[in-house]
Amino acid sequence: MPELDIDRVFHALGDPTRRAILDRLCHGPLSVSRLAEPLDITVTAVAQHLQILAESGLVYTEKIGRVRICRIETAGFTLLQKWISDRRSLWDRRFDQLGDLLAEPEVEK
Amino acid sequence: MPELDIDRVFHALGDPTRRAILDRLCHGPLSVSRLAEPLDITVTAVAQHLQILAESGLVYTEKIGRVRICRIETAGFTLLQKWISDRRSLWDRRFDQLGDLLAEPEVEK
DNA sequence: CGAATACTGAAGTTTCCACTTGACTATTTC
DNA sequence: GAAATAGTCAAGTGGAAACTTCAGTATTCG
């Protein structure tokens, strides 16, 4: 279990293929080769994507026999959601403090 | 105004320097050179990052005189938040449908 | 007006990352 | 036990993207 940070999560989600994989997994668990089918890249490439997704806490995989089953893992999503709400509240707080827009001479002291 | 899609947003947020820029802007608007100060990259590089952030609806910039003022723009964050909640609800729905875990022979038919 | 400031544009470099190939291992199935 | 299946490992390639340099354009200040 690699230490789960937001850097990994954003890097993982930055790739459209990885987001496509997540989209399919939202509807239920799938094997590696099943995931590869609609994507026109090799199974190896898919496995590489899955490793990145797993390391960022977005996917959980488990090898049963010769098949690796992949599922959505919520940890990564939770971390991401926290990141957004943290920044949102920081920014929103600014609007409350001052009258904003009008009468604001300084652009950070 | 370029069409604002989630692809751009995720690509923009995939870079740690751009996230650092956003973090600073959460505390208030800043000029390009002010943003560049703590980052050890050139002003040009910062301007390039800002363009990407602007194109993804995460930052709004406005040139006043010779200074370009940069602020957080909420559109990108809103889009991102929607993306997460859409996927979360899809995945959560699965758990409700079936008894999950136990008694689930198929891995997508 | 001349100098300094704040940025912009174009072009080149370098680094990174998605993807491939080909050989290999482990598990089923016949 | 041989063949098929499912995935893994290591190494290499190509292209995108982050960053630089340097020259240029407005704008403001003395």
TrEMBL record, chains A, B:
MF (Gene Ontology): DNA binding; DNA-binding transcription factor activity
UniProt domain HTH arsR-type: residue ranges: 1-92
UniProt entry tagged with the keyword Ribonucleoprotein: no
Record keywords, A-Z: DNA-binding
InterPro entries with a match to the protein in the record: ArsR-like_HTH, HTH_ArsR_DNA-bd_dom, WH-like_DNA-bd_sf, WH_DNA-bd_sf
SMART domains assigned: HTH_ARSR
Gene3D superfamilies on file: Winged helix-like DNA-binding domain superfamily/Winged helix DNA-binding domain (1.10.10.10)
Pfam families attached to this UniProt entry: HTH_20
NCBIfam families, per database record: HTH_metalloreg (NF033788)
Protein name, UniProt field: DNA-binding transcriptional ArsR family regulator
Originating species: Silvibacterium bohemicum
